[in-house]
Amino acid sequence: MAGRELRVQVVYALPQRSWTVEMVLAEGALVADALARAELAAVLPEGAVDPARLAVFGRTATLETRLHDGDRVEILRPLLADPKQARRQRAREAAKR
Length: 97
Hints:
By secondary structure, the chain is α+β, with helices and mostly antiparallel strands. The protein has a single domain, classed as Beta-grasp domain (Ubiquitin-like (UB roll), Roll). It is built from two helices and five strands. A five-stranded mixed β-sheet has the order 2-1-5-3-4, covered by helices on one side. A hairpin with a 4-residue loop joins strand 1 and strand 2.
């Protein structure tokens, strides 16, 4: 079915604010195509998207990931704490109680 269109969202969320850009792309579009169309670099703290921090519906994605109709491309924020260290800290605090 050549020429089919895909409805896609690109989202970026901060604790107090979020951005959602909805768009229609051609069939065969990649995550890179959606990011280029979204033009969210101005609102990102780093000024550009880190390709290592991308997901589609919470699943890790790359710039070359092919999109499907209804997909939501997520630009992920860096972790504030190392998960392993955070677990250790919680365990220490629980042991003190």
